C-alpha cells in the first residue's frame, strides 16, 4: 500500500500514527512486550490521549525473531497460518536490557530495540541485516477510495449486483498496520510465491492476493507472504489475507509491508546460507511432503479439449511406449465429466460406459497411474448441485443464499471447505473415484474465492480465507489420498497455494502461452516459488495456450524433463512428440532416459526437500551467494547442488547465453567438454541438446540406461557411480535411497588419496555396475560388479 505522495508528503486524507517512543517494556517468556506511544512523551500529561501501539518482539525458534504490531486488541479473526505443523520449534531466546535498549538474541540473530526514538535493528554475528527506523512502523487510516481493497471489491462484485443489489456500504476509512525495513545498497529481494515478473523484486509492488490471471501479468496463483534476500535473512509476514508489499517502490531504500486490520506480525529469519533460511522458514510453516518415486516420471494429458475414446488414448500411450517415451501418469482433464457439469465427479457415460474397466485396462496395459482433473466449484447444472445446496455445503451470501456466478461454469457455487460436513461430502465423491482406479487428482483453481458480502460456515473472515482457501482445499484432497494409499504415496497436481501450501505438493505454473517468452515466465515463476519454501515445481511442457512451433516444443521438452515434475499438457492441441515431427520423440526419449537414470540422485534431493525444505530446482544465488553475478540469473538454475541446467530460449541457429560460476564444470551429455568458471558462455545449442553441467566435487549415482521408469530399486539395479574433479584429500559422499520412503540402501563415498580414487559402499547394500572418474575432459571407468570398494587411478 502506498501512503505517500513522494517521500515527504502523505496522500490526501491519509492519517498516520507512527510508533515513536517506548513507554514500557516488560519481559514475557521468549521476548518483550512494549507499549509504544505515537507522540513524544515529555511528561505524564502527554499520556492522556493518542493511540498507543502494542509491539511484541520475541523469538519462537532458533534464528528467528518476530515483531507483532497491534492497535485495538480483540479476539483474533480466523483463519491463521498454522505454525510448526510438522517439526516443533527449537527455542533458544536470550534476553537482556540496558538503560535504553532491549535485546533479544537467538541462533546468531539479534534484535536491538531502542527506547527514544523507538527503533528495531536486526544483526547477525558480522553485520547489521536490516532495521525498522524512526517512523518505520505505525497505523494509517486511509480513505477507502485509495485502497486496493476498493479495487478488489469492485471486481468481485461486478457479476453479483443483479442478485445482490445492496452490498454493504464501504467504510469511509480503512485501517492499515504498516512496517518498513531498510534495504541496504546491493540488497536484492526474491520470492513472494510464484511471481512471473522480474525475478529480482526490487522496484515492484507485490500484492499477496491469489488471482487467476495467467502467467503474463502481475497477478499470481500462488502468492506467499515470504521473501528471501541475498543478505542472509528472509521475512515471513504471518498473515493469511491480503499483504501489500512495496519493494523499494514507494520508498526506494525500504521494503514496506501493509495489511488492512489491527495487527501485523512478521518474522526475521536468519541463516548463514539461503538454504538454512529455507530450512528455518519451512520448520515454521511446514515441510514439503514426501512424494512417491513414480511421480517423477512423465505425465501425459491428451489435452483440455480432448477425446478419450479408446483409439486416441491407446494410440497416445502405445505411441509413447513404442518411441521409448514411456508415460508414468496418464491425466484425464476436464472433459472426463460432461460439459457444463463441472464438477459432478461422474465419468461421462458417453465416453466411459464402464470407467472402472476402462481405467483398469490402460493401467495394466501401459503401466500408468491415473490422474483426473477436479476443482472446488460446483456448476448449478451438475447433478450434485442440489445436494450441495440442501446440505449447506457452499459458501453463502450474507442473506443465506449460495454465492454464485457464471464465470467458468453456469451458476457455479464454491464448496465451503470450513464446513466439516461439506468436506466429508466432497471427500466421499473422491473416495468413489479412487474405488474406480484413480490414483491422484489435479486440484485446479482455488484462486477466485469470493471475499465480499459472503459468509463461511465457521465464521472465518472472508478476506483472510481468500488465500488460505487454497491450502485447506489442497490439504483436504492430499489427506484423502494419504488415507487411501498411505504416507509417502500421496500427491496432488495443484495450481493455487499460499504459505504452508508447500506441504501438499506438487504445484504447476498455470496457463502459459506457447512462446519462448512464456517459457521464460514459467521458469521465473518456478524459481520464485522454490525460493518461497516449495521443494517442487512443474509447468505445462510446450505451453498451455496455442500450438507451439516445433523448435519451442523441443526446447521446452528439454527444460521440462530437467524440472522436478514433468507434464505434457495443452489446451487446443496435443503435446505428444510426433505432433512436432518424429525427431521430437527421439529428443524426448534421450532426456527422459536421463531423468530415469538420475532418479537415485533426484529422489535423494526430494528427501532433503521433505526433511529440510531445500528445493530441487534452485535459483543460482541459493548455491552461489558469494558470486554477485549469480544473484541476477533467472534463465538457468541448479537442480540440487551439483547440476546446472541452462534452458534455451532462442530459435535454432541463434546463440544462447548462460553463466558458469567459479570452479571446473563438466558437461553431463558431453563429458569430454569442460569449462573453468566464472565464465559466460555464448553458443549455438542444437535443438536436440540442453546445456547441463556437473559441478566440481560432485558424486552422482545413475541407474541403468533404458530402465524405462522412475520407480525402481535404486540400490539393487547396478549403479554407475560418477565422480567429478576431486582434489587431493577430498572426500564426498551421498546416501542412496531405496526409492521407497525414507529407507536408505546405503552410503557411497569417494575420496582422492595419492592420486587414486577410492569408492566405498557402507551402511547397507548398494549394487555397483561401474565407477567413473571425470577430470579435465578425461574419463576413466572400471567395472565394479559384486564389489563394495573400487579404486582407480585419477
Keywords summarizing the entry:
alpha+beta, 3 domains, 20% helix, 794 residues, eight-stranded antiparallel sheet, Immunoglobulin-like, TIM Barrel, Maltose phosphorylase, domain 3, 45 strands
Low-confidence runs of at least 5 consecutive residues: 153-167
- Number of discrete helical segments: 12
Order of strands, widest sheet: 4-5-6-7-21-18-17-15
Structural class: alpha+beta
What is the architecture of the largest domain at the second tier of CATH? Alpha-Beta Barrel
Number of domains: 3
Rounded radius of gyration (Å): 27 Å
Mean pLDDT: 94
Shape: globular
Notes on the protein architecture:
With 794 residues, the protein is an alpha+beta fold. It folds into three domains: 4-74 and 81-151 and 171-270, Immunoglobulin-like, CATH 2.60.40; 293-612, Glycosidases (TIM Barrel), CATH 3.20.20; 713-793, Maltose phosphorylase, domain 3 (Sandwich). The chain has twelve helices and 45 strands. The strands form ten sheets. It has an eight-stranded antiparallel beta sheet. It has a six-stranded antiparallel beta sheet with strand order 3-13-14-20-19-16, with no helix packed on it. A six-stranded parallel beta sheet has the order 28-24-23-22-31-30. A hairpin with a 2-residue loop joins strand 43 (768-775) and strand 44. The model is unreliable at 153-167 (pLDDT under 50).
